[in-house]
Amino acid sequence: LKGGSIVDQNGTVLFASGPAMLDLANPPVGGYFYKPPTHGSGNFTLDYDAVVADGNSGATKSFAGSSTINILPVTDAPHDAAGSYQTSSGTAYATYTIYATYDDNDGSENHFFLVALPVGVPPPFGWEVADPAVVTAAGMNGLATPVYMVPASDTGSATFLLDMQRYSSGDLIFKAGSIESSTIGTGSEDYKFSSEVNVASPGAGPFS
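Below the sequence we write its predicted structure tokens.
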């Protein structure tokens, strides 16, 4: 077994990765199941050497082979999203930091935030409006301002400076998002999102 483990119907590990002996004549209740490695996807190979015994004569015959098990990628939903801000005295700028916990960090997922700014506040340079399909999947369509897609850092956060001089109303609203990279563009994208978070606004600058 090259990666993963053999478990029973309750998920109890019977044999871990490596060589193991399975008694197919007396399997556990429900049979044997393959459990891939945590966050694992793609093709996994099961090599086997089987021995078949005749129930009457006791004669045996051996044969070898292999099977490939394809595990489809599943996106893990980010969680524990939160945010805060700090103002700069004598300026109209506020520094926002938003973050979330992403459990799958083996490089197979894209991690990001969907962010709607307070009314009147311009987006930082380089920000791009999110794909409407992703915004709809997140349930964030219909907000008062556009929704931007902001990449998450390796630590699951994003920090940005907002010019609050033209602030009119509302809070900063965001959701953390993730998707298995291999599903992008396949028509079977599996986006997952955190709960929606409202980060209170300091109001219009300049700040004292």
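The chain has a mean pLDDT of 91.
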